[in-house]
Design a protein that fits this description.
Oligomer: single chain
Distance between the termini: 25 Å
Helix content: 25-40%
Radius of gyration: 15 Å
Shape: extended
Structural class: mainly alpha
Order of helices and strands: H
Strand content: under 5%
Number of helices: 1
Length: 56
């Protein structure tokens, strides 16, 4: 981690990510792609959480 940055993972606050699709195409318009994205994000979150970090 770069010098001067602090991790504050267990503050009890919600975290969120934002992004946009290439050229604002509606890749996430249908439920199936949204569900797949959600599953991938959850899998990644679980794989990067420590045993003491709540995952739900």
């Amino acid at each position: 981690m770069p010098v001067g940055l602090e991790r504050r993972q267990q503050t009890g606050q919600f975290h969120f990510i934002t992004f946009s699709c290439y050229h604002r195409l509606s890749f996430l318009k249908d439920p199936e792609p949204k569900n797949i994205l959600e599953q991938v994000i959850e899998k990644t979150r679980h794989s990067h959480s420590s045993p003491s970090t709540p995952t739900s």
